[in-house]
Amino acid sequence: MTWSTLPALMYHSVSSVGGPLRDLAVPPERLAEQLAALSGAGYRLVGLTEALDLLERGSAEKMVAVTFDDGYRDFLTQGVPALRKAGAGATLYASVGHLGGRAGWLGEWADDFGPMMTWEDLDEVAASGVEIGNHSLIHHPLDVLTAAQLREEVVSSHDRLEQRLQRKVRSFAYPHGYNSDLVRRVVEQSGHDNATEVGRRVHTPSERRFAVPRFQPTPDHTGADLVALIEGGPVLSAQLKQYAQPGWRMVRKLARKAGRNLT
Ligand SMILES: [Zn+2]
136 C-alpha to center of ligand 1: Å? Predict the structure, then answer.
């Protein structure tokens, strides 16, 4: 790969969770190992908007964009200290309507992920230098909503974040990764200038800025595995194959169920 491409990572909870959603939680010590391995391999670790800005200015630096979805409280207590120790920047995507609550869209597994951050927690995260991005209001797949619901999900979450944080909120993460032409257009028109999905491959700057793909590190990725994953090399961890992303598939299944209930 050339260094004008951008690998981006999609983390969720910084904790340890059992059951079918275990891949959505990476324990703090594993996160620290993964970040250290990436730094050791010569990557600068930055938030997504910062990475895109640097690429646009012609930077040829080796970078990895580090992102965390949803806004679990463990991001503040475990994620921020791990990032600080690694000298890493990051983007945290807040599910605005769930701040101070729980991750209800995870169904019976929501409580395993602990509480979501409060607005005060989010202030603290922003003050630590982490970019705050928008992850919609209620974390519903956006491509099945009516036009009015879609605007409410994207616009009101964006405006509430900007009013609270008193800074521009430039990045958006599609809940469950789902997007469409209409969804991308509404996200762009509401004041965001980039957005990210799932994708599992590196981003090429000439591609759509409103569908930046991300890799999902799991608790089974050693630091070396993660470097291999983003560089397209063989991932050696045997356990990795065994678990081949069941957590993400489960969340999408839950989302589809929720989508049917809504329409
Ligand atoms: Zn999410």
Answer: 9
Please report whether residue 176 resides in a domain: yes
CA of 253 to the centre of ligand 1 (A): 13
Taking the centre of ligand 1 as the mean of its atom positions, its distance from the CA of residue 175, in whole angstroms, is 5
Report how far ligand 1's centroid is from the alpha carbon of 15 (Å): 16
Residue 219 binned pLDDT confidence (cut-offs 50, 70, 90): very high
Residues with CB under 5 A from ligand 1 (ion): 69-70
Number of domains in the chain: 1
Look up the domain containing 20 and give its range: 8-262
* CA 176 to ligand 1 centroid distance, Å: 6
Q: Are 150 and 110 in contact (CB under 8 A)?
A: no
Summarize pLDDT for 114-127 with one digit per residue, the tens: 999 999 999 999 99
Provide the 10 A C-beta neighbour count for residue 78.
20
For residue 79, tell me if it sits in a domain. Answer: yes
Cα-to-centroid distance, 234 and ligand 1 (Å): 28
* CATH at 152: 3.20.20.370
In a domain, 222, yes or no: yes
47 CA to centre of own chain = 10
pTM: 0.91
Start-end of H helices in the chain = 28-40, 48-56, 73-74, 80-86, 119-127, 147-151, 157-165, 181-189, 223-231, 238-243, 246-262
Spatial distance between the Cα atoms of 24 and 126, rounded to a whole number of angstroms = 23
Could you read off the pLDDT of 238-261 as tens digits, one per residue?
Answer: 444 444 455 666 666 676 666 555
Establish if 2 belongs to a structural domain.
no
Query: Measured in angstroms, how far is the CA atom of residue 70 from the centroid of ligand 1?
Result: 5
What distance in angstroms lies between residue 58's CA and the mean position of ligand 1's atoms?
Answer: 31
Q: What is the Å distance from ligand 1's center to 93 Cα?
A: 8
